[in-house]
């Protein structure tokens, strides 16, 4: 299914808050939902940095203004430049209760792992949510990037995030 820009509501205003288990001071997770296409979220890269592995994924959690039932999909924009850090494998969780201290949706429904075919700079990754999926939070767990994990210690995976409105008939 090819999705058009008009299938998505504007970025600003669709989320109440954003959380991450890693973020750079200059590019915090709030940049994902600020509506500014020139801003971006970046994992912590200064000092020891953040090492992405399947057991230690980069985790983004977004609190929706509307319940997930009001949406039938989401998408995110891959990094517009450089090949390091393009999202290659991820999964998502949707639920109503988020434990910020544990960075975990405690009552969620988890997707299987999703492979991104041919990740490319500046490309959108589109995901359909199963019908009737319910929750105030959506969490993206990024498990693998396009380049080797050694290169991903300094990693900037997602530039922008958006939700597709449920179509009414």
Radius of gyration (Å): 15 Å
Which residues form runs of ≥5 with pLDDT under 50? 1-11, 148-157
Q: Report the average pLDDT across residues.
A: 76
Intertermini distance: 18 Å
Major sheet details:
6 strands, antiparallel
Helix proportion: under 10%
Helix/strand/pairing category: mainly beta
What proportion of the residues form beta strands (DSSP E)?
35-45%
Shape: globular
What's the gist of this structure?
With 169 residues, the chain is mainly β. Helix content is 0%, strand content 36%. The protein has strands spanning 15-20, 58-64, 71-78, 87-95, 98-99, 104-105, 109-110, 114-115, 124-128, 137-145, 158-165.
Structure description:
Strands 1, 2, 4, 7, 8 and 10 form a six-stranded antiparallel sheet that branches. The protein has no helices and eleven strands. Mean pLDDT is 76; it is low at 1-11 and 148-157. It has strands at residues 15-20, 58-64, 71-78, 87-95, 98-99, 104-105, 109-110, 114-115, 124-128, 137-145, 158-165. It is globular. The chain is mainly β and 169 residues long.
């Amino acid at each position: 299914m090819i999705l058009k820009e008009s299938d998505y509501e504007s970025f600003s205003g669709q989320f109440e808050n954003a959380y991450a288990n890693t973020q750079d001071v200059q590019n915090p997770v709030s940049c994902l939902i600020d509506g500014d296409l020139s801003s971006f979220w970046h994992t912590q890269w200064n000092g020891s940095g953040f090492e992405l592995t399947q057991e230690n994924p980069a985790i983004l959690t977004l609190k929706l203004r509307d319940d997930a039932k009001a949406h039938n999909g989401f998408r995110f924009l891959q990094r517009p430049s450089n090949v390091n850090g393009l999202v290659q494998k991820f999964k998502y969780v949707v639920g109503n209760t988020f434990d910020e201290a544990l960075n975990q949706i405690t009552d969620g429904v988890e997707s299987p792992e999703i492979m991104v075919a041919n990740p490319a700079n500046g490309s959108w990754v589109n995901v359909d949510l199963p019908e009737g999926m319910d929750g105030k939070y959506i969490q993206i767990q990024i498990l693998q990037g396009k380049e080797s994990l050694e290169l991903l210690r300094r990693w900037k995976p997602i530039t922008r995030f958006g939700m597709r409105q449920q179509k009414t008939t």
